Amino acid sequence: MWDGSSDPRYPQFYKYNDNDKLTELESIDDAANSAWGDGWRIPANEEFHSLIMSTNKTMDWDKLQLKLTYNNKIILIPTGGYIDNTGRVDSEIIYLWTDRITNIDSSSALMANSNADNNNLLQIGNYKSRCYRLNIRPVFDDKMYCLAQLHHRVVNDVTTSTTTVTVEITQKEAEYLRLNPGEVTFSVEKIDSKYIIQTTNLYSEQVIINSYGESNFWNK
Q1: What is the full DSSP assignment across the chain?
Q2: pLDDT digits (tens, 9 = 90+) for 185-204
């Protein structure tokens, strides 16, 4: 997750800082992906924003959780506050990490939180120190899952002398990558102990997929 020392008074940020210029949480650091596996991730800041701004939703409190109804689906978001160096704070308020640091200060990350001045409904745009412990509300991304599974199938056929692998891709995988379903040949490259697979689609576009199912055709 967002890295830093356990003591907010002495933060040490080894990534997502002014040197590497990274602002979006990578899958290798995503707690949801680490805990739940392929397809699971922390929601993007834009996803929270779209959800909160949508007119096709309702938000009501049900005991100590927010009941959000969206497109005929119910999302339950529990309270829990956050933890700083003094212990748990605001336990009856929702604090959820998003996948972005702020553009104001790389030592802080954006969050979604409930607001007592707005009937305790969810809002976006505030931030907390990356050293604090906030809850996460994982989401499942079907496209990310499909492409991760495809990556695994290709890499499973890699040998020490392999530079290309041919596999059968599904209709859904084909649609995501702008390919025809059926046999597709991928080139395989190992970078820093991780495999990257590549091919060219129907529009002569280069397709690149990593082990987390992220590609140049993958968007949150």
Answers
A1: -----SSTTS----SSSTTT---B--GGG-HHHHHH-TTEEPPPHHHHHHHHH-SSEEEEEETTEEEEEETTEEEEEE---EEETTEEE-TTS-EEEEEEE-SS-TTEEEEEEEEGGGTTEEEEEEEEETTSEEB---EE-HHHHHHHHHHHHHHHT--TT-SEEEEEE-HHHHHHHT--SEEEEEEEEEETTEEEEEEE-TTS-EEEE-TTS-BTT---
A2: 999 999 888 899 999 999 99
